[in-house]
Amino acid sequence: MMNAQSSPLILTKLRVPAPRPRIVPRGRLVEPLTLEPGTGLVLVCAPAGYGKTTLLAEWSQSLLPKGITVAWYALDASDDDPIPFGCYLIASLSQALGLTSELAHITQLLRSSPEIDIQKILPAVINAIDASDRDCVLILDDYHLISAPAVHSAIAFLLEHLPENMHIVIGSRSDPPLPLARLRARGQLLELRAADLRFTADETALFLNEVMRLELAPELVNVLEARTEGWIAGLQLAALSLSGRADKEGFIASFTGTHRHLVEYLLEEVVSRQPEEVQVFLQATSILDRLCGPLCAALPGVPAGSESLLDQLERTNLFVVALDDEGYWYRYHHLFRDFLRTQLHKTSPERAAGLHRAASEWLAAHGFLREAAQHALQTHEWVYAAAFVEQHSFTMIIHSEISTIYEWCAAFPEEVLQQHPLLCILQGLALAYRFRRQNRARVEERLRQAYQLIAALEDRQSARELNELAAVVHTFLAMVPDPQADFQKQRGLAQVMLGYYPAGDPGQFSGLLFTGYADLAVHNAPAAAEALESARRIALQARLFFGVVESTFHLTRLAHSQGQLRHAVEVCQQGRADIASLLTQPEQELPALGCLDIALGSVLLEQNRLAEAEEHLLHGLEVMGWGMNPYYLFTACVALFRLREIQGRSTEAVEYLMRLEAAWPDVVFCTRALRIRHALRTTPEDPTTLAEAANWCQDFSSSVGQDVSPPGLGPFGAAEVYYLAYLVWAHAQIALGNTQAVQAFLTQQIELAEAHGLTHRVVELSLLEAQAWRVAGDNRQTWAALERALVKAQPQGHLRIFDQGAALTRLLVEAASHGLARGKPRDYLERILAVIGGPKDLETRREGDAILPDGVSRSSQVSRPELVERLSERELEVLRLMARGASNQAIAGQLVITVGTVKSHINHILGKLEAHNRTEAVARAREWGLLEI
């Protein structure tokens, strides 16, 4: 219980409040709260002190025996922001529904992307809820603390698209800005208001005489009930004031006034009648949003015995609420807390800073860094607060809490920030890590301020370390998508970074990595390889774990671009071995290692080792999370998009693009391009597809301009992102018949790739060129381009690069039929066609049968062995749904059978197709002609 969570989330906000020892049962209110199928929203709305939270907690307990799970989320002022709100919302749902990989990915995305539009993740959230077999109630307590329009819009969207197994309950002091009228008209809203929540005469008597044990005469109970109008907080305050009084009747006679005046009067009465040590305790601990004994004891001036004092306050109903079943964490009732804080600032304003500082130190020592930082900032002692943020920001970076660093830095006055170079760099880093073009000027201004301060430092070691961190920010900034990025400027900056250190010094790592990036950006593969290999060696010698990982990733990607597939696999495997030598525990599963899985999975995909590729890509995404460096994420998502495309799982393929858009909005131009490519692959002659392709080509040409340098390699300026978009542009123009528009581009790019030894690019560009010449009617140029691609690709066994759709498949089939390839190239061509769906038995094909009107030869299905046991009709139905990417549960729902029966069918299918998993079974079924390709 004393251990800090690895996540900075305050888990007690996600727990249903523990039942209080003595409360008035609200059975008359719990009973009407029946969740009818059509009820989307339950709104419990009343002013402070009407028992909303207590009622919702009691109701939650009543749901558990019915098999309904509760996702509880107690909001506070810090949740009035889409990102923290989204993090807690997903955490709450995860507790209720179980942490699925989908919800885990969304959490990572939220924590690392401060500017993400929360609306974009909601479809995935809704799908995750809908996929669960549990009925769930999401309870949002204290919703009146939310004013952010984005949060209200998110809840409205959830209500509009709420799955059948989900209900939302809101506890609030005021009506939330949601479409209540529409929900009311549809019969989808259940409401409880102050008139429903107020104590009845019987409940008032029970509370005063049974719970508070005042033994009041019925007429006095009636007077209090009438004066308070059943307002529960007023009755509790009155009861606390009456406790121990001899003249109860006289006090009740003087008990008048509005709610506000009653609160002030009665709170003063209640607090002033407590022992001195209790008053001191209450006032000091009022600064805390949640309390535990050791934390309270750490505050200056708090008397000893805090644990027993908290327990005593709860037993006497002194506005203390337990937050867990163990009675360790508590909070004050909001009315009571606000009153105590006001009193503290009225009577002892000078104490507040010291109390916040002590709370910050205790919370930080126990790992609660978010809360600790809030208290550090509330001291308004900016030197102390700056030191706190500077000390703990790197912990947040390791946990991908980049958005938190930005929040901390934003809390400082501008004049304070400009006195602290590290704060300037940290805020610049947090902004740069968003990889958004619109933030460039702000980041550069922060770095400029930092450099001015660094220049004045006498401590050169500190200056050196600050310069190193500023270089990292420049690296992030250079990865912002920009078709007109100045790579010579980046190269110059890299040389400056190298100049800080002697040759071979570990400090040169960042400069060498930056140099490698700059060389990649201008296609200089040999120079890039040399710089990256030097960076890798220095990182290995200096035991820089992240340095070895990053340099190995880019060396693997470079080898892939050079067409050296086997070498790329070797580089990645050697990198893993090197990293293992650096770890004290070789079995450690560190998130950064995931990027090597992503690089390796991309190579394996090209080699058609689909099952291995899938394993590595999914594992890399899982361990790194959706909050990884967007360049790595882009590589992973594009590879997984291609894999799902190959597997015929189109819906999942497009979902990876949607997730990528949400994580990195500036690459939407490319994800849109990939959607166009997907449509051209699946429905190439559809008029809608062609119209969308034409519109996209026009938009893309306008956005990049006319005088754009050919896209390079690597992360700088998101060069590879633009290159991929250009490939789709060329593909679309060919499909539209605009071959003249692409010939010059393809010729230029092929010459450039040839000159720099980028074999992979030569192959894919030559394949596009072959298709362009075929559309233009020049067969000689067509076969020349195709032969160039085959000759370049064969030595390393490229396969999936030829999987570009029906048009290229027809060309390859025709090439085989007309004897374009002889000897080993012919064997290679047969291999390619076997993989992408062309005919295997080429020798028996008639030349006149080369191209049919629909582009598929009469013998285009791969011959298959006789099945030991033919698939039944039901197994074929299951197989088709598997090919579409349907889950076991989805297949069961569509075929109206149990999940167990689905699993049985799949086991039979795997056995009959001699496959080890679903992916292999679908691939083999296509190869054998059991499924359409």
Features:
mainly alpha, Serine Threonine Protein Phosphatase 5, Tetratricopeptide repeat, globular, two-stranded antiparallel ribbon, 7 strands, 933 residues, Rossmann fold, 46 helices, disordered N terminus, 4% strand, five-stranded parallel beta sheet, 5 domains
Descriptive notes:
The protein is mainly alpha-helical. It folds into five domains: 25-194, 3-Layer(aba) Sandwich (Rossmann fold), CATH 3.40.50.300; 202-347, no CATH class; 425-432 and 439-468 and 475-655, Tetratricopeptide repeat domain (Serine Threonine Protein Phosphatase 5, Tetratricopeptide repeat), CATH 1.25.40.10; 667-849, no CATH class; 873-927, Winged helix-like DNA-binding domain superfamily/Winged helix DNA-binding domain (Arc Repressor Mutant, subunit A), CATH 1.10.10. Helix content is 62%, strand content 4%. The strands form two sheets. It has a five-stranded parallel β-sheet with strand order 2-3-4-1-5, sandwiched between helices. A two-stranded antiparallel sheet has the order 6-7. Helix 6 (149-160) links the parallel strand 3 and strand 4 (166-172). Helix 5 packs parallel to helix 6, helix 29 (545-561) packs parallel to helix 31 (594-606) and helix 36 crosses helix 37 (719-735).
